[in-house]
Write a structure and sequence with these properties.
- The structure holds two protein chains of two kinds.
- Chain A is an alpha/beta fold.
- Chain A folds into two domains: about 150 residues, D-Maltodextrin-Binding Protein, domain 2, CATH 3.40.190.10; about 170 residues, 3-Layer(aba) Sandwich (D-Maltodextrin-Binding Protein, domain 2).
- Chain A contains 17 helices and 13 strands.
- In chain A, strands 1, 2, 3, 4, 8, 9, 10, 11 and 13 form a nine-stranded mixed beta sheet that branches. A two-stranded parallel sheet of chain A has the order 5-12. A two-stranded antiparallel ribbon of chain A has the order 6-7.
- In chain A, helix 8 crosses helix 10 and helix 9 crosses helix 10.
- The longest helix of chain A has 23 residues.
- Chain A is globular and about 65 Å long.
- Chain B has three domains: about 60 residues; about 140 residues, no CATH class; about 220 residues, MetI-like fold.
- Chain B is built from 18 helices and four strands.
- Chain B has a three-stranded antiparallel beta sheet with strand order 2-1-3.
- In chain B, helix 15 runs antiparallel to helix 18 and helix 17 packs antiparallel against helix 18.
- In chain B, about 40% of the residues are buried.
- The interface between A and B is large, with 56 and 54 residues.
- Strand 2 of chain A pairs antiparallel with strand 4 of chain B.
Chain lengths: ~350, ~425
């Protein structure tokens, strides 16, 4: 009995000592981060992780750590300052915004290098049990926008359409049900911009609005309806794929790599007459494709070992070239000239300016 | 007589009344019992469905498809100048050896595009496997060995019957690939073997190379930190509050707060961890130390409440007896009350730890939801944990990760089962009843 209580006292002292540890340790530990810390977009994550793994296995450097925080979350962490506790690289499925560059500069992150890595296609897919849909961006806008043109003059009404057939008589007579990512996602931003705004522009009077009142134009074109037809399904794209399997009437919005890996279960809708295939996205014919980026903190290049070599690995032909291993994972490569440009930018750590 | 008759009559009526009610009471009891049994049956059915689906989806991941290759460790490829230097050996192009063997196996493949397809039936891990073999035993150079290397995940899925070839399938396995696989099957050069890599490897983006060991080690470090902090702190808090603290408004407030903390959503603890441990103390992101600290905050209330209940169940006579023979308050607690309450405290701790083991939400905020290949080497190293690994795999596009997700869930469930069984055993062994 005495022994047990003695042990208890010893344990308590130990705990107290351990509690003190964090206060004393960080200075010693933080100075020695010897691996690259990467944050950012969940769309770029599958590609960045493959490069990180290859890099760790084939060089003397440690394998970088890759966190999936979303494009916005990644840039926020990236721009929070210089020093080992802040990430070195952030991935983004959209370009850095002016406000983010400003925020970066405010925290001392003045020199960053932008590297475009390739393209990603956004697909609208449904179960293979159902019929494949042929749809235009205009139909997508009418089906999913919060407010749509009323048809009488230049006025908007809350989206009245219930079925695809209501939108366009040539479309099937099923309820509009689209599963997609939430507003925090870069995929959602890109979908709103490419698909909805793309369709919205087809109305000449809305297009004319762009010059007069850009804010209103964006609000009209990119607002997604909130009455249950568009279902926010979280950042987990694989979950959307599984839900589509069980519900042949529903459509899902996600990145091309998920269609590529699960083409026996789902099929991509044909948008404006173009099928979402690797070739069509690479050639730029498929309308819903967007560039992917990563940003490097120049000040860290000398501080953390391996950053330059990581960039070299990412921009090598065996990674992002037309036959590289990233292509097997679903990345759509850039044309030769563009690849060459960003390879050079990476090698010289070219300063980025808006 | 009249009187007695009256009583008899009276009791007869009463008996009838009771009998009439009895039927209703029995019926009520029966309904209640049936309801109870139904509830248990439904719960058991749910559990069975859960276990059966997970096992059905996951058991195949414990096997992996391997391809037999006859590799010639050509000195002109590995070490052309015969230096024997480890630097040269580690930098050599082992992929070339694999490709050469494949070309020899299928000499009819000539076109560039076809060759690329052929090379892709073997995992990219094959080259690393050969490198390791040579690094371990440089004497292999110049010899020819039969080596079983992991197949690519698409081939693995095909062999396991999860995907089909051609148009019906994902379109990732074309007719020529299917033909090669058939040749391999005929030559018995392809087979399913136990998947050691799954238990010994770190994470990988290639499903056939991905393992859970990195996540298991991360979980162990995190749990270690959680245990050594939360158990002593929780017990000390409970002992003080239960045995020493005066009963006044302050202790009441503390008690209410502890009970409230036990019900706070775990993500809140993650936010707290981000603000305090990362931003204020400047601890490293993604490290088990921070994960452990956050989970400590989360499990502390559970442990305190369990410990207090267990202290309350020690009869007052023990305390009074100790005080009666002249022990001080401290002695009575340390020598008599605490040892008797300890088994209950341990049970509470283990159940709290089991909950912490399955937690992902608070770790999201402190950067432990990350792709980490290396096996963590300490509590300050970058690490992830088992449930996070499951979450990350579940969201991976590659089909082969689906079965690995379920397999990782099986492993996590096994850990939880062991921990809960331990709690039961400890309670049975040390528990005293009065």
């Amino acid at each position: 009995m005495k022994k047990i209580s003695g042990m208890a006292v010893a344990l308590m002292l130990f705990a107290a000592a351990t509690l003190m540890l964090p206060v004393l340790m960080p200075a010693a530990d933080a100075a020695v981060r010897n691996y690259i810390s990467i944050v950012g977009s969940s769309t770029v994550y599958p590609f960045a992780t493959v490069v990180a793994e290859q890099f760790g296995k084939t060089t003397k450097f440690k394998t970088p750590k890759v966190e999936s925080t979303g494009s916005g979350g990644g840039l926020k962490l990236f721009c929070s300052g210089i020093g080992v506790q802040h990430p070195d690289i952030t991935n983004a499925s959209r370009r850095i915004k002016k406000s983010e560059v400003k925020k970066c500069a405010k925290n001392g992150v003045r020199e960053i290098t932008e590297i475009k890595i390739g393209y990603d296609g956004i697909v609208i897919a449904n179960s293979r049990k159902a019929k494949r849909m042929k749809i235009s961006r205009k139909d997508l806008f009418l089906a999913l926008a919060k407010d749509v043109p009323s048809g009488i003059g230049e006025s908007l009404i809350p989206n009245p359409y219930r079925t695809w057939k209501d939108v366009n008589p040539s479309l099937p007579d099923i309820k509009i049900e689209v599963l997609g990512p939430p507003p925090t996602s870069g995929t959602r931003d890109a979908f709103a911009e490419l698909a909805l705004q793309g369709g919205c522009k087809k109305f000449s009077w809305i297009k004319a609005m762009k010059k007069k009142d850009k804010k209103r134009y964006k609000a009209v074109c990119e607002a997604i309806r909130e009455d249950g037809a568009y279902i926010e399904a979280g950042e987990n794209d694989m979950l959307i794929v599984k839900k589509l399997e069980g519900n042949p009437g529903a459509f899902g919005v996600f990145g091309f790599s998920f269609l590529d890996q699960n083409a026996d279960k789902i099929q991509g809708s044909i948008i404006d007459g173009v099928e979402p295939t690797f070739e069509n996205i690479a050639s730029g014919q498929y309308p819903l494709s967007r560039p992917l980026y990563f940003y490097v903190k120049k000040a860290h290049a000398g501080m953390i070992p391996g950053i330059k070599e990581y960039i070299k690995e990412f921009t090598s032909e065996k990674a992002w070239g037309p036959e590289g291993y990233l292509i097997d994972k679903g990345l759509i490569p850039m044309p030769d000239r563009e690849r060459e440009k960003f390879r050079r930018d990476g090698r010289n750590l070219k300063n980025f300016s808006m | 007589m009249n009187n007695i008759g009256g009583i008899q009559e009276n009791s007869g009526a009463r008996l009838q009344l009771i009998k009439a009610g009895l039927k209703r009471r029995y019926a009520k009891e029966k309904i209640f019992r049936t309801l109870g049994i139904t509830a248990i049956v439904i719960a058991l059915m749910m559990l069975t469905v859960l276990f059966v689906t997970i096992t059905k989806n996951g058991y195949s991941a414990f096997q992996q498809t391997f391809i037999r290759l006859k590799i010639t460790f050509d000195a002109s490829v590995i070490d052309p100048e015969h230096t024997g230097d480890t630097g040269v050996l580690s930098q050599a192009d082992y992929g070339r050896l694999v490709k050469k063997t494949l070309r020899e196996m299928f000499p009819e493949v000539k076109k560039r595009r076809e060759k690329r397809d052929l090379y892709s039936i073997v995992s990219s891990g094959a080259a690393f496997q050969l490198r390791k073999m040579v690094m371990d035993d440089p004497g292999l150079i110049g010899t020819t060995q039969t080596v079983w290397v992991p197949a690519d995940d698409d081939i693995d899925m095909l062999i396991k019957g999860y995907i089909k070839t051609g148009k019906e399938g994902t379109g990732r396995i074309k007719a020529d690939k299917a033909a090669w696989v058939n040749t391999l099957i005929e030559n018995r050069a392809i087979e399913k073997r136990f998947n050691f890599a799954f238990f010994t490897g770190g994470d990988s983006r290639e499903p056939e190379l991905a393992g859970i060991w990195g996540a298991v080690v991360g979980s162990l470090y995190t749990m270690f930190v959680t245990l050594i902090l939360s158990f002593p702190l929780g017990v000390a808090t409970a002992v003080y509050l239960e045995e020493f603290a005066p009963k006044n408004i302050w202790t009441d407030i503390i008690e209410v707060n502890i009970n409230n903390l036990a019900a706070v959503p775990s993500i809140v603890f993650g936010l707290l961890g981000l603000a305090v441990f990362l931003n204020f103390f400047g601890l490293p992101r993604s490290a088990p130390i921070v994960g452990g600290l956050v989970l400590t905050l989360m499990t502390l209330p559970t442990i305190i409440i369990a410990s207090r209940v267990s202290l309350q169940s020690v009869p007052p006579s023990i305390r009074e007896g100790a005080l009666g023979v002249g022990a001080s308050k401290m002695q009575s607690v340390m020598h008599h009350v605490l040892p008797l309450a300890l088994p209950g405290m341990l049970t509470g701790t283990i159940i709290g730890m089991a909950r912490a083991l399955g937690e992902t939400a608070p770790l999201l905020m402190i950067g432990m939801v990350a792709f980490i290949v290396d096996i963590p080497a300490g509590i300050f190293d970058k690490a992830t944990v088992l449930p996070v690994q499951i979450y990350l795999w579940a969201d991976s596009p590659e089909r082969a990760f689906a079965e690995r997700t379920s397999a990782a869930i099986i492993v996590l469930l096994a850990f939880l089962l062991i921990m809960n069984a331990l709690a039961v055993v400890l309670r049975k062994k040390f528990e005293k009843r009065w």
